[in-house]
Amino acid sequence: MTAVLLLLGITLLSIGQLVYVPTFIGLFVILGLLAMLMVTRRYGPVGIIFCLSGTLLCQITLILFPEEFHFVDLLWIMIIVLYTFFMLGRVWGLAMIVLNSVGVIYFINGVLNHSLTLVGNLSQPEIIGLSVNVAICFSLIT
Fold first, then answer.
1. Band of the pLDDT at 125, cuts 50, 70, 90?
2. What is the number of other CB atoms lying within 10 angstroms of the CB of residue 42?
3. Beta carbons of 22 and 57 less than 8 angstroms apart
4. How far is residue 130's CA from residue 122's CA, in Å, rounded to a whole number?
5. Which terminus of the chain, N or C, has less C-beta within 10 A?
6. 3-class DSSP state of 68
7. Cβ 54 vs Cβ 80: under 8 Å
């Protein structure tokens, strides 16, 4: 994830998409979690913080960046939910589904129409950034 978010953050920054901010925040969270894992040697708390912070960053991106094309955010949410189920189990996985579902439903009902009026046609750099993002998501899902 460190390499993935670094690549994605640099790509988004280079094409001028503001969602590089939550991407780099996620990178720094992961670096902190790696340090925590090295010190504590306990995967459980690190996994929980990873899932919760990933969910929070996805929801922030959906709600605070209405000018972005949010198709890929749903893929990131799927990655977080799948990761949670596989690594932390059913209870945490269901909790992530609930948290993310509430956020996505809020986005659909409160932000989506406004977002659609702002997005318009994507520029060639935005298409490249979206393509990189989707390729990363599919690689992680695989």
1. very high
2. 10
3. yes
4. 9
5. C
6. coil
7. yes
* Tokens representing residue 135 in the block: 């390729």
User: Alpha-carbon Rg of the chain, whole angstroms?
Assistant: 15
Count up the domains in the chain and report the number: 1
C-alpha 87/C-alpha 47 separation (Å) is 7
Question: Which residues span the domain enclosing 55?
Answer: 2-141
Angle at 71 between CA 69 and CA 76, to 5 degrees: 120
Percentage of the residues of the chain whose pLDDT score is greater than 70:
100
Residues 66 and 68: their CA atoms lie apart, in Å, by: 5
- What is the dihedral sign for C-alpha 97, 99, 105, 107? negative
Predicted confidence (pLDDT) per residue in 20-69, tens digit? 999 999 999 999 999 999 999 999 999 999 999 999 999 999 999 999 98
Q: What value does the mean pLDDT of the chain take?
A: 96
Angstrom distance (rounded) from CA 7 to CA 23: 10
